[in-house]
# Entry
Amino acid sequence: MNKDGLDVAPGLLPASFPRGMALLQDPTLNKGTAFTQAERDVLGLTGLLPPHVNTQDAQVARVLENFRRKASDLERYINLAALHDRNETLFFRLVVDYPDEMMPIIYTPTVGLACQQFGHIFQRPRGLFISTRDRGNVAGILRNWPHRHVAIIVVTDGERILGLGDLGANGMGIPVGKLALYTAGAGVHPTQCLPVLLDVGTNNEALRRDPLYLGLDEPRATGHVYDSLVDEFVHATQEVFPGVVVQFEDFANHNAFRLLERYRDRVPSFNDDIQGTAAVALAGILSALRVTGGTLAQQTILFQGAGEAATGIADLAVAAMVAAGMPETDARRRCWLVDSKGLVVAERTDLAEHKRRYAHAHAPVRDLAAAVNLLRPTAIIGVAAVGGAFTPDVLRAMATINERPIVFALSNPTSKSECTAADAYEHTGGRALFASGSPFAPVARADRTHVPRQGNNSYIFPGVGMGAIVSRTRRVTDEMFLVAARTLAAQVTEADLAQGSLYPPLPAIRDVSAHIATAVASVAYRRGIAGAPEPADLLAHVKAAMYEPRYATYVA
# Structure
């Protein structure tokens, strides 16, 4: 398959190539009004389309005009989903050309609302739904997927969707959105992407009472039933799509950590909520340190949250400190966690395993505000989906302790953000180095206009996935996420930092992803875990492999 998704040269279409209405109904091949007259004549399209032949740019102008007419973000999401379903190339052209407008709709924060409304806005299936009733036939279901060159799978069980909790089968919106960003952000061909929802039931009673809910109407499976389905699924992915990369997405803490440990050395797999979030947060810290000065080892990082995101970020920060020569025990003491019961300290007996490595000797502390005043952190990072957790008192305390406090409100959607950008600047006298999980508009103050950017995983996971695909790595390692973080931070310019931006602009995401993919693939080659031959110019090889959403020519 070439980068345009064609297995044949123009003019040599096989007899099985769809024609007429069947071609117009295939989103991977449809060009709509952009089919040339020669293509219309040969492919049985004459009369099925208006006579004027549009350029793709003219089509983009039309769909953009209609998109902007929509009254709400949910309507815009539905509009883009319909475009995706009828003309995939045009959909991705729009997202690539207008990332600042489109990414907040197809991904955070709007995708959260779309998941909540999934059964009410459902139009046509996208991805595979695999339920506990399918045990024993998972490989067969994977073979139902129409594309044979799948290289990346994003899978969720819907239990912890963003900061919204258990959404069951409604969680399918997340893998669909993630994989759209793999294509738009890193050029992974759309036919190489497969979204999967493991429907193991839901404990969300409101959903189960909803007559339009599309998932299993039963409580969540646990224990052997759950584990056997996941195990069969993981092994079936490698049987049906050998070497496919599996990204675990939005699993609850009690499953996320153990599934990552179980499969990370068996198949090329990773958990974006643990490792991707870690890399993007570490990149933001590294960018901030270019402003504040000092080293990572000199920072004290306090997390609002103690789940997979918090411990994932802490683990990667520790790995970076250790790589710089700091003893691991000392590095871990630079990271502190606050959960729903207060500061995570050694004397507590109620701690889950993943929290214990950050449970330091300290007197009990009741809440985040008290922890800030006692520990005097240089950075606070919110990843617990507790909206408003960074109160004015917390922000003012951070500004008293630090000349340039690092404040990352990474929870999403926007309703779960620990603070707004405006609040962060207002209560720190405009001195905060701020990043967020959901987008915020620039904030104008008397001294200057601050341009905050999202500390969003979309800067990381597309490039990591592309690097894994290009190298055909047998494992996705923590070292790959560390180099991804460093590479992302290196793409931030001095002009970005001067306006308060700790990440590059979204229109640069494809170039950023190409560099991250190159860095990730380099690790695979250096560690001897790559299955593909190493090219002489790896960056050029990555860029050449990136899908460009332009129409193919079917008839010369």
